[in-house]
Amino acid sequence: MSTVADKLAKKSSRKTSSKQVRLRLVYIDFWSAVKLSFLGAVAIAIVTLVSFLLIYLVVDATGLMTKADEFVSGIADGAKLSAVIGLPQVLAFGSVVAILNLIVFTVLGAIVAGIYNLAVKVTGGLLVGFTSN
User: Fold this and answer.
1) Which of 15, 25, 94, 96 has the most C-beta neighbours closer than 10 Å?
2) How many CB atoms lie within 10 A of CB 72?
3) pLDDT tens digits for range 73-113
4) Is the dihedral of CA 22, 25, 26, 32 positive or negative?
C-alpha cells in the first residue's frame, strides 16, 4: 500500500522544470492603491482603539489614576482628573485619532501610487523576477 508520504517522496524526486519570468511593474492602479491603503488604515484604526482601551484599563487597574487624581488635586485646589478623563472620553479621543489616521493613511496611499506612476515615466519601472515551481 502506498501512503501519502510515499507519493510526496516520488513527486519530489523527479526534477521539475522551473521557468523564470522577469516582469516590469510600470503602473499601479490608483483605485486599487486607495482601496488597499484604506483597508490597512481600518486595521490600524481597530488596533488604535483597542490599544487606547487596554492602556486605560491598565492605568485604572494599577491605581495610577487615583495617584494622578491626588497629584492634580494637590496642585489645582481640589480639581479631579477622573472627572475629565474617563472611559468614554478616552474612547472618544481614540476614535478621533483613529479617524484622522484613517484619512491620512488613505490619502498617503493614493499619493504614493501617484508619485510611483510619475516616477515610472523617468525610471522605466521596477524590475521583478518570478519563478514557477
Assistant:
1) 94
2) 17
3) 888 777 788 778 889 999 999 999 999 999 999 999 999 99
4) positive
